[in-house]
Amino acid sequence: MADTKQRIQDVARELFARQGYTGTSMADIAGRLSITPAALYYHYKSKADVLDALLAEPLAAYAELAERASVLTPAELLAAFVDFTARANAVIPVVTGDPAVRDLLDERFPRSPKEMMDAVIAALAGPDPDRPALIRAHAAFAVVKEATAAVLAERGLESADRKEILAAARRVLDA
Amino acid sequence: MADTKQRIQDVARELFARQGYTGTSMADIAGRLSITPAALYYHYKSKADVLDALLAEPLAAYAELAERASVLTPAELLAAFVDFTARANAVIPVVTGDPAVRDLLDERFPRSPKEMMDAVIAALAGPDPDRPALIRAHAAFAVVKEATAAVLAERGLESADRKEILAAARRVLDA
DNA sequence: GTCTATACTTAGATAGAC
DNA sequence: GTCTATCTAAGTATAGAC
After folding, report:
1. Which of A131, A143, A144, A155 is most worth mutating to test chain B (most B CB atoms within 10 A of its CB)?
2. pLDDT tens digit string along B2-13?
3. Residue B132 near chain A (CB below 8 Å)
4. Is the CB of residue A47 less than 8 Å away from at least one CB of chain B?
5. pLDDT in tens, B139-152
6. Which nucleotide is nearest to A33 if distance is taken from CA to C1'?
7. For labelling, which of A69, A90, B57, B62 has a CA lying 20 to 30 Å from the CA of B106?
């Protein structure tokens, strides 16, 4: 990818994460790069396209995970999801926090994050889940997502952290 | 409170929850009430004031919970937090999802939601926590917050649900 | 308490020069 | 590839009539 496009994505990822997608203007992004907003439109035809470029790879990874979910054991799925969360850490709040982003993604990507999350939850809950099983699945999902984010907020995700998170998630899942 | 003010708050709560604070305009709120935006400014002097009015009660409840956190047992704290989450359900995503709201609250309320969350996490982690204890505290917090929200998304929080959520959170906390 | 009209600002986006 | 200049739309907010 051209150097300028890469730099735009890096700045956009940081600003979207800090201020949200709706809360970040094209002028904000351009200012950080010491160019004018108009110059951005040479590289991307809209603000939504900048977001697309930023999310394409993480969303594809999420889709792959959701597709494999039903053939993995819960332990394998939780482990894979910790790693996904760690890699996509910077963009997850952008997707989950801003309703405008959710609507954009519905138009532009085949499967919504909500659908993919539901697939993971369903796999964690097992076949024909009752209400307690669904609650435990949501809880285990939450443990992985939030605990991983909490660790990454102040340091790298070390091997011991990963094991602790997975152990907690498995305790939640096994009633 | 005057009837119109109450109806403005009800509409604002619903729209902020669905579209986010930044993603909701005064015209959106006014339209739902079949009045003009200008009329809103008779009742509230700014959009931020509408948000303030909406969040004052939940934030005060959260502050009280955070203050009592250190003298409650973890089980009591988790139970109180389930109930708080259930009551504040509609506005929690408004606060946590939009960075602009976080900045507004920093200016307008004495203690930020982040600070209060940290107090709860610290109480759950116990004195002089090591890294695993902090991870477990974050995980238990996440279980209560997300599982309660998941249940409320499709039905009321029944007594059995509450017990299931608390049992899961306690399994996370006790290594 | 609500309206019309409007001021002011910011944002997304385009045209055309360089 | 980037700029200047500009358009259009939307949003917050106010003034003053009713």
Report:
1. A143
2. 899 999 999 999
3. yes
4. no
5. 999 999 999 999 99
6. D2
7. A90
SS3 B8: helix
Alpha helices (runs of H) in chain A, residue ranges in sequence order: 3-19, 26-32, 37-43, 47-68, 74-87, 92-97, 99-108, 113-125, 131-154, 159-173
Residue A150: list chain B partners with CB under 8 A.
134-135, 138
Where do the domains of chain B lie? 3-173
> What's the predicted TM-score (pTM) here?
0.97
In this complex, how many residue pairs, one in chain A and one in chain B, have their CB atoms less than 8 Å apart? 109
Is A64:A115 a contact under the CB 8 Å cutoff? no
pLDDT tens by residue, A84-138: 999 999 999 999 999 999 999 999 999 999 999 999 999 999 999 999 999 999 9
Domain B3-173 has CATH 1.25.40.10: no
Q: Is strand D within 7 Å of residue B45 (CB)? A: yes
